[in-house]
Amino acid sequence: MSTPTKERPILFTGAMVRAILAGSKTQTRRILKLPPMQPWQHRSKGWYFLPECNHSSENPNNFVAGFSDGTGTIINIKCPYGKPAFVPFNRPADRLWVRETWSVSSAHDSLSPKDIPSSAKVEYAADGSSGYIFGKGRPSIFMPRWASRIALEIIAIKVERLQDISEADARAEGVTPTAFERLNDNWGGVLYRKLWESIHGPGSWDANPWLWVIQFQRIQQP
C-alpha cells in the first residue's frame, strides 16, 4: 500500500526562483546539521560520512545519512527535506513547495498572512512589478501554502562536502554567467562559490560543511 506524498516548504531567493522557472535550476544544497562533539569523543577528528544515504530500514518514509566519529559511534541524520521515491516499498517521492517574497493588495496590509483570503491576487517579487497596486512586501518565510506557485518533486538526495561540487552540479544550481564568464570552462564552480558566500557570508566556502544535495523537478500544482 502506497503512503501519501508529503509536502514541505522550502525558501528560495528571487534569483533562484527565476532560475527554477527558467528550468536552469534543478538542484539545491542545504547545510546538514551534525551534533557537536561530546567530551568523551576527544579522540575523534570529527564526523565523517559513511558510504551512502538511503531510506531508513526502520522507517522507509525517512531518508537518512550515516555518520561515524571514527571511534565507534555511528549516528543517522534524517533529511528534513523529505525523500525520493522508494520503489521496492511503493513509497512515492516527497514534494517541496517554494516560499518566495510576495505581496497582496494593500487592502490586506493590516492582516497577518494566515488571515489573508486565499482568493487574494498574489504578486511575486521575483517577477518585478506587474503594474497593479499591491501592498507591503512580505518575507518568504510567511508565505502560506495557497500563495505558492511552484511545486517541486524530489528526484534524488545525496550528501557531500561543499567544495566537492562538480562543474555539472554547479551549473544545475542555476547560476547564470555573463558572456565573458562563459569563456571560463569552470564558470559554474566559480559562480556557485560566489553565490554561496553571498548567502552564508565570508569564510563560509572555506568552512566546507557537509550538505544535503537535493535534485528536483518542477511539477504542476495539484
What can you tell me about this protein's structure?
It is a single chain. The strands form 3 sheets. The protein has a 5-stranded mixed sheet with strand order 1-6-9-10-2. The chain has a 3-stranded antiparallel sheet with strand order 3-4-5, with no helix packed on it. The mean pLDDT is 92. It is of the alpha+beta class and 222 residues long. A hairpin with a 5-residue loop joins strand 4 (63-68) and strand 5. The radius of gyration is 20 Å and the shape is globular. The protein starts with 6 loop residues before the first strand and ends with a strand. It is 15% helix and 27% strand. The protein folds into 2 domains: 7-97 and 148-165 and 209-219, no CATH class; 101-143, no CATH class. The chain is built from 4 helices and 10 strands, in the order E-H-E-E-E-E-E-E-E-E-H-H-H-E.
Label the overall shape: globular
What's the helix count? 4
* Relative strand content: 25-35%
Q: What pattern of helices and strands is seen along the backbone?
A: EHEEEEEEEEHHHE
How far the N terminus sits from the C terminus, by CA atoms, comes to 21 Å
Low-confidence stretches: none
- How many runs of DSSP E, i.e. beta strands? 10
- Computed Rg: 20 Å
Please outline the major beta sheet: 5 strands, mixed
Q: Could you say how many structural domains there are in total?
A: 2
Instruction: Assign a percent range to the helix content.
Output: 10-25%
Strand order of the largest sheet: 1-6-9-10-2
Mean pLDDT, to the nearest integer, reads 92
Helix- and strand-based class? alpha+beta
